[in-house]
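job 3f2a | input accepted
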Amino acid sequence: MSVIVIGSGIAGASTFFALARRGMPVTLIDDGTTGQATAASAGIIQPWSSRTEGAFYDLYAAGAAYYPELLSQLAAAGVVRTDYRQTGGLVVSADGAVLDDVEERLERRRSGPGEA
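job 3f2a | predicted structure (116 res):
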């Protein structure tokens, strides 16, 4: 069996890398046009302030928590430049209630899966 991964954004590239590490014959296809999801989010991996809850949030946070391990695996494979930096996050709103909600959510998630 072989696999074709469509798209070289963060999800596609990560999927390609994981399959290749397991010895799976895999081909990555990307047309290189502008407007990809990774370009839209600038590669931001920051689930903690998201309003998403439940299983989807748990998956999102686990992916973010796994990212340092992925960087270690990439380094072991010879990929030494990823331009990844941990810089923090910023939530902006003119509505104080929105900011209070985000602050409460961040405090609650501080010790949960994929802690902030």
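job 3f2a | The longest helix spans residues 54-76.
job 3f2a | closed
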